[in-house]
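In the current project phase, the collection of sequences with tokenised folds has grown. A sample record is quoted in full directly below:
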Amino acid sequence: MPTLAELAQAIGGRIEGDPGFFVQQLKVPALAGPADLCVCLEKKHEKSVHASRAGALVCTPDFQDSRPRVIVSQPRSALAKLNALFSTRRSIFYQGIHPSAVVDPTSQLAPGVGVGPLAVIGACCHIGAGTQIDAGVVIGPDVSVGEKCLIYAHVVIYEGVHIGHRVILHSGAVIGSDGFGYVPDRDHHWHKVPQIGSVILHDDVEIGANTTVDRGSIGDTVIGRGTKIDNLCQVAHNVIIGEDCAFAATVAIAGSVKIGNRVSIGGQAAILGHIEVGDDVLIHAQAGVTTPLPTGARVSGFPARDHREQLKREARLRKFARGMDKNDK
């Protein structure tokens, strides 16, 4: 069991109280016992943390409590580090290549690559050192994967995709499938437009389970360094996404959208094709973006508009509805 002093050093905090306190587990306030540690994330959690039986705390300087504490300025960042320290999940699936895996002899696997059962790696691929490929993964020809990536079970990576270092692809993700490109003839029959571009995932990208990233029709679909995309999202062909973005589940981005850096998108939001979104934009859940958004915009509703304006519109509608109800009576 780690001591509070060891944990404080790991998360960059300052100790108040007994530095030799042994921490058994990291737990939420309601479940913590006298040997456990809990984190006070926000002011609204202070009441539950005060009532907790936890033996030690991680909190901000303004939180007052007599128990041993590690003082930090950013509790959420501290929690992320603590979760990693207390995690029992394995980050390595296999040592070497499982006998049932199929690896084309023209592909190059660096030292420390693990390949699980029934995985398939096509011709002329390059897999970086320490990358782990789980069971049933299919990697097409001419794919490059960087170092220390985690590719979970049943991921499919189409031909020609380029993946950076420390990328995480969760189960069922499909990277490089064809974009939705068709043209009708005079008789209204649809004819496929070959999708000849690729997908580029830069370093430290994470793609959620069953999310799809389509290859470009001409040119590439690109996801910037550090961007995190949740489960069940759709990124269409020729979308360009900047760095350090975060998209919640079931976000849908139509073709040729350009998104800046540090953009956050709530669940079930959608963006119409060929729109540009600036840096530091916040798109609230279920918003429908139909026009370009400038840097720093905060939007919600359908069609998406300034978030404060949308809240005012909703308030007026509720007031109107209450008035109608009174008239009905």
